[in-house]
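Page header: ASSEMBLY MODEL / four components / 464 residues total.
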Amino acid sequence: MVEHAQEALFRPVRAGNAFEETVERLMQSIRLGVVAPGERLPSERELATRLGVSRVTVREAIRSLQENDYVESRRGRYGGTFVNEVIPKPAPGKEFGDLHDVLTLRAVLETGAAEAAAGGSLGPAERRGLRARLEEASTSSLAEYRRKDSRLHLAIAEATGSASLTAAVAESRMRANELLDHIPLLEPNLAHSNAQHERIITSILDGDPATARQAMAEHLDGTASLLRGFLV
Amino acid sequence: MVEHAQEALFRPVRAGNAFEETVERLMQSIRLGVVAPGERLPSERELATRLGVSRVTVREAIRSLQENDYVESRRGRYGGTFVNEVIPKPAPGKEFGDLHDVLTLRAVLETGAAEAAAGGSLGPAERRGLRARLEEASTSSLAEYRRKDSRLHLAIAEATGSASLTAAVAESRMRANELLDHIPLLEPNLAHSNAQHERIITSILDGDPATARQAMAEHLDGTASLLRGFLV
DNA sequence: CTCCAAAGGTATGTCTACGAGCCATTGACG
DNA sequence: CGTCAATGGCTCGTAGACATACCTTTGGAG
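Prediction written out in full:
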């Protein structure tokens, strides 16, 4: 029997209760920029169906987001729950998990996604989407950079056509962002990052998996080094 | 708003109820060979703690495994729940999920794991473990090959030192195995597979990430082609 | 101006899962 | 040969999550 392997398989079956998990998901969709400020979340009934959770639980989760000013709800037809402009609490000051764990998984998933995206056949819509996200990220302000950056990286994962891979990247990015929220984001880094994004997307659109992978690896190494430096 | 990205983020928060999830985990530990036939599962109380689930739920899960002859329980000190030799139902005839989804995620995770394992610093215990799993797989019979193969691949993931990556590989392997259970496993494939394992492990032990990745990619391509052929 | 579809808001009974405790059994050790 | 620690077996009350149903608000369509 492999003692060590048990740790991976006999880990907790559920991350938290249904309420906490739901809050986490909605937070992800906001923090990763999937639903931008001013935009509307899906209706409570739709969320309940999509998330596989009762509407009561969805409402409790939304309520907790309201109390922290992340969203506002309006009644009536054409109402809904809307994302607010300001994100009040950038980081709840969480404990750093295993840094190596997060960075290793992120590197594996994202370099793999870049390679797979470049190796697959992209439709016109996906090509346009990638270019649009690249443009958004490169023209974004410092304040909203993290969100635009995440949207770009998520778009790359989506381009692989694997929903599981996309979900895994989203999850991994949330964990990485929790750490990144604790270190400064500087203009020079941002410019460098944009250049790297450019190279990654170009390689993907050109169908060059090897270059896409390498470019993504270099891109991730940058923040990985920063994190290792700041958080030691 | 990126419509497509919502599909990844607004997926169900929980795979099933606590009972089903627990059964699934215990099945994984048996099917992937983490707990071999004749060996004992952790005690009910320990499983309850590790899996973050009540002991009642653990017992219900174990009971359902008992009814399918996967395990037997003995009372008293030095008792416990033991894995049976024969696995009665190789495949419950499940529906094939998205083949592309499974194979893409598996390729990303496992090639990434091989590369990371080769790039990291391996302790003596881990090196011995890898060699032992390789030996086990190469000398195994056809009947137990799938299990020994999984243990080897899990050991590679463990060698990265990332628990999350190991867990992801385990999950991904279960999904892939469900598909592989529907296609024949032939002696020639097995010999070829063993040669590839040899090359993968050698590269990892030699600290050659590029070769490790490539060898793993070729290894996975084999079964991927088989699957695509058989399941179209 | 009226209607009504679609959204959020509320209430209730049911069922799952949990925690906590106790019982029954077993085999090694003194 | 008795003790006892650790295991599986069992019960019961509580809390979380559920499905379902209905109410209230809103603004565009007719």
